[in-house]
Prior knowledge:
By secondary structure, this protein is mainly β. The chain has strands spanning 3-7, 10-12, 32-36, 39-44, 50-64, 73-85, 91-102, 123-125, 128-129, 132-136, 142-146, 149-152, 162-163, 166-169, 172-185, 191-202, 207-213, 217-218. β9 (128-129) and β10 (132-136) form a beta hairpin.
Amino acid sequence: MKKNITRRVVAAAGITGAVAMGLTSLGAGGATAGPLPGGSVTKTLVDGTPVTVQLFDEYVNVQRAVTNVQTSREVWLSGKVRVTVGGKAEGGSVNAGYLVGCQVNFGASAGGEGGYTINEAETKTGPSLEGSAGFELSPGEASYFPIIEETSGSDTSYKDYNVSSYTFKGQRGGVTYSQQKFGLDGCAGYASAKAKIKVTVNTDSVKGVITLYGKPFSIG
């Protein structure tokens, strides 16, 4: 069955040496623009397999929505994910995206007043739009915006038609995304977001899941 990457992601089995993607100016009036610290995590699976997940060159640009409505935001995101595995592992899969909350506290560094600590069970995946993604959030709600979306075949009736992960072989894989856009509507309060990178690695004796969270940042 043929797989086609339909939007939002450039993936490479070896991301080392990849050409850096520069950000173009989105014009004056951006609410927030600048680099984010990314992050790194290293875990050793129960069979001794080491797994390292890195998020770097992360950048955000928050714009006022073209509708000029206070409850809407427009966000552009860039970044690179590198995964390195050792031992007897022969690859893995990467799910990458952003948790987005309206008046939701992602932690002490999220800033703002009010809100509450996010519960993964309370998140929902935002609907995909052609060329971008958008969703509505009311106060106290959170959503997950994936930056990877592949399709398998041409028939949406297939169970695996929508694929939100990138699978790589060998000991190194990665994902690069540049100026990926999503729109947030209906949020009358403080809004924030943070990266969520989930990596799954399988060996003959174990299946390991490693999750890396980025630093929360304000989107207005």
